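Lecture 7 notes: from sequence to structure.
We start with the chain below.
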Amino acid sequence: FGVHRATRALYLGQCKGIEDAVQWMLEHENDEDVDQPLLVPKGQVKEKLSEEEARKKAEEMVRQAKLKREEEEKKNEAERERTRIKMGKEILAAQKLEEEAARKRLLEERQREKREEEAAREKVRKQIEETRKEWRIKRGLPPEETEEEKAAKREAEEKKRREEEAKRKQLGQSKPFIKPVSKIEKLRAMLVESKKTLAEDQFKSFCKTVFAYCGNIIKHPAEEKYRKIKLLNAAFQQRVASVPCGFQLLELLGFEKDSSGDYLILEQKNVDAPLLHSAGEELHSALNNPFFGVL
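Predicted structure tokens for the same chain:
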């Protein structure tokens, strides 16, 4: 093959070897200018680089590629951070909306329960009033109480007040008996919840046991054996510890674990007679009042 044809094959065919060049020349052997000198603009002629120049150029290309990757990574990281912040704000907003909806549902539920409770109270009151009237009519009495009966009831209430005052003086209390309202409300709430969730026999056994604790401490406040409960006692485990609110209720009454951790003890200085009296009343009501937790 001629020099001009070979030159064209190498330049125009961008051949990498002899086989590629021969193949190009065979494919273009009928071209009119295949044997004409190849004229190439001077600016397109690439000068061959020395080994050192090629190495430096390669290093520069690597450096430029690395910088480009780093720049792209920074942009991607910034975009990810913006996305993360946006998603965080959206999640917080959704959580706030959910919390607000939950508070609204809880408020509506409480209002509904309150209305139902008030309706149940009113229904029971009417039933009690009707039963009382029927009872009086069956015995030949007028449906409503007479003045004499009202006076007798007032006298009975006065008698009860005097008895409570005498009992208070006997216990050495200088102030009128005042129920510790907040603690009694908590205790009553525990009893109401327990009555709803426990079997009747288990609930009654629990109430009777705690009622006995309160009564014994009121009668014998100075005797430690009535103010001390062994945690591993089988009866205590079965009747009190097995109830979800058992320990919490005793702590409300003033019981604490001793240093050994084996006993619950109510220190004599912490005995709260009014609280124990009120707790006894609530426990007695829970045991004997069929409407306990309804009214």
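Points to note: The mean pLDDT is 84. Residues 51-138 form the longest helix (88 residues).
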